[in-house]
Amino acid sequence: MRIIGSIAAIAALAAAAVANAHHSFAVEFLEDQTRTIEGTVTEVWFKNPHVRYYIEITTEDGSTESWDVRGSSPTILVRRGWTPKTIQEGDHIKVHGHLGRDGRKLMSWIYIELEDGTRLGSEY
Question: CATH number, domain at 42?
Answer without folding.
Answer: 2.40.50.140
